Amino acid sequence: MKRRRLTPYALMSPGLFWLLIFFAIPMAFMLIVALEEGSIDTGFSLTWQFANFTESVGDFSTQFGRSFKFSIIATILCLLIAYPLAYAIAFKSGRWKNLMLFAVVAPFFTTYLIRTLAWQTILTDSGTIADIARFFAFIPEDGKLLDTDFSVIMGITYNFLPFMVLPIYASLEQLDERLIEAAKDLYSSARSAFVKVTLPLSAPGIIAGTLLTFIPAFGDYVNATFLGGPNQAMIGNVIQDQYLRTQNYPTAAALSFVVMAVILAIVLLYIRFAGSESLMGEDQVP
Amino acid sequence: MSRAWKWVREHAVMGVGILAVAYTLIPIIVIAVFSFNDPQGKFNFTWEGFTLEHWKNAFGIPELTEALVLSIQLAFVSMIVATALGTLLAMGLVRYQFKGRRFANLLIVIPMATPEVVLGASLLSMFVFIGVDRGFSTLWVAHIMFSISFVVVVVRSRLIGFDRSLEEAARDLGATPWTTFRTVTLPLLTPGLAAAAMLAFALSLDDFVISNFNSGTTVTFPLFIFGASQRGIPVEVNVLATILFIVTAIAMGFTVWQQRRAEKLAATRPDDEDTGLSALASGQRPVAGSSESA
Amino acid sequence: MDTGPVSGWARRLAVIATALVASVLLAACGSDLGGGGSDEEVTTAEATGEVGGDLVISQWPFYIDRKTVPEFEEEAGVKVRYIEDVNDNNEIFAKLRPDLQNGESADRSIIVVSDWMAKKMYDLGYLQNLDKEAIPTAYENLLGSLETTAIDPDRSYTMPWQSGLTGLVVNTKEAPDVTSINAIFDPKYKGKVTVLTELRDTIPMILLGEGIDPAEATTQDWLDAIDKLDGAVKSGQIRKLTGNDYTDDIARGDAVIALGWSGDAIQLQADNPDIEFVKPEDGCLLWSDNMVIPVGAPNPDAAYAFMNYVYEPENQAQIAAYNNYITPVEGVQEIFEREEPSLADSELIFPDDQFTGDCSTIDNPPEDGVDEVEDAWQQLISGG
Predict the structure, then answer these.
(1) Is pLDDT larger for residue A227 or for residue A179?
(2) If B204 and its partner were Cys, which of A111, A275, B143, B242 is the partner (CB 3.0–4.6 Å)?
(3) Domain B64-233 adopts which CATH fold?
(4) pTM surpassing 0.80?
């Protein structure tokens, strides 16, 4: 019996220690920085400035709002694109399965920066896509696609799409197709078979996918940097700038903790709403 | 219901799938096309003519080649360790009830929610504080750190709803825990593991911010590209990106082919075609229910 | 599975972790993450006269041709690790600061940074003075006009790598007749203008456009200029704030007027002959990127050997022909007349005093208003 009690700790200790030493301890360091005041020229001292948290939120509420908007829209778009894609790969692709899987992960093998820069070339004012958008009057005659909300959301959707597809595919793939066949016989309509069987059984994949997309998307700054202008700056850009440019380490650190708290709160709410605690809290235990 | 409508409904999912695939491939096609561009100066943005010059010179920028090789090594190390540690974490979390579980959960989710610049900067402060020289080793330490959580989330979604009765059957047949793990659990987990490994690999290959802080004097592929992007990216970057893409495609195609052949010989699971993704991560896929489990 | 060794191993790890936590907490109590710098006298990186060993240089990308470094290695018997990791003054500062604060240089013996960053690092005690005896060639060949500068009047800690002008980079086909800095506010070019994220480039230029000499400008002038720009950003007049990568927007045609640097314009012309550097009639900024030696730098002798080497006109000509910025070395123009006649007349590489006469070298906000100005600027560049 004793052995069984220790097993989870044995399994988990290498990973947990890794996170503890290389994540938690440095972050404890950062938490202290978040409570300091001063400037790079005069030096910083720990004065338990809890106001850093409230002030930083007040000063940058616009960018927080933008981060919400962009990351939520992008996550929804990802889901709408990824589910049919994963479903098609898992059940409909036949001999094209490997090819389609490869297409999904292909962007992984061209670095994030290169593919984001490629989107600059694609969406440029004089490019074909912009011409088409103008022709169909999606944008005004002198309008642009690049450096707008559209291009940033599109970039986030693109860059995080594989994060959504892979977990959904992984959970769909383990579905027994006979189960779906049986459901089709039972409910007689493909739609209710899907709603009552396939969808619930792929829920872990959907939840994992939305989290893997939303969490990094909320703090992302690369897309807003390369595909957006100053009116698209997200909270990730602010933190980046506060740390690197202004050298205002306390504000940068405080903002980071606020971002972490906001994301955690959203994740918890979402999991409660999704009716599954399986990703954060209580997994079913045999 | 007309036949045409039925056809559309039948193929709607596949249609969306194909459009989505096109979406994922467009930038890659653009990158590949511009690897044949012949810019007069340094700015590879507008089409100025066709040339094979940069393909002939693919490895002609030693710093770039060096950076790419370093990044691939780094991604492999990070992928292997992060997948191993993350899978163990996911197994512990999904299968056991124990004290400190909430804390463990928190410790796993928070790194994903932490802005990169803070991850990078705080880790750097610690390395400097304890006097570690930065370089390849601090890079893989950092990469594993930020990849673990992603691995856990993916593997966990596969572990939930995992049919434990198969493992029990193996145990009943007298298999040791290790044999059970190797011949039953692992093969069933493979698609999840492969997806997780792929994510870990990609995260490492893509990372700029955290690497920038902790790289010391080493230069990774994204670091080189970021520097170059400030002053005009050489066409050779497109060439190498295209080569990387082609090599991956060939490697995946080859493993799939080998897999099919092996399966034909063994004829154990003739219809299973889910090998591309899994084969890439695991090299050789163990076949469930092979003789070893007995 | 045997739990014995596992728990033993876990215990050891736990001990290490506890020790780490304790040490970090201790450090945090006395933590001084900010500069503060040292109160001690600035040291001089003394040369011993023995040249050899390794040399690590941190430099901006594409600032040197492919041959210079290997040729130097050959001649001096020094092994060089030449890293192009300076993308941005602020970024390299953030990256190296933890080491510099400890009096270490992260292996680097030469770092190349812009004027204001050099001063900032010097004031924080992160840099050493140069050993003037050790770099006779550099001092001898340094252009007269660069012998003294606002940040370092007698060149005691900086040695220019290259200089340049901040002005307008213009696509003359799309935006003909641009002569004033105020063209960036012209509604004709709405959404086709970029300015620099660097406060110390962009705002002094706007001040010049207003007819205010940056050297005389008050904090209020700076804030007003930021305000004016903010309005233009919000209205969509300004498309983007960029770093060096404004060249991408110009090359693609998404921007037709950009605040930018002189050397880039020459390089952009290769792909698009319509692109020109316009030195605005209202004035311009003259700056340098400088080689500096950080505290704790190993092997200063090799660093000095490198400085002397790049200040040899023949060697410098090779570098200047590659990067097209203003060379700080006397005698290069004569070599160009012989070998690169097309560039020898370029005012952007070899400006005469008349050309740079109305250029300001002051780019810092008034001392007492720096924080206020930086805060306002931060809000602007992150779209607040």
Answers:
(1) A227
(2) B143
(3) MetI-like fold (1.10.3720)
(4) yes
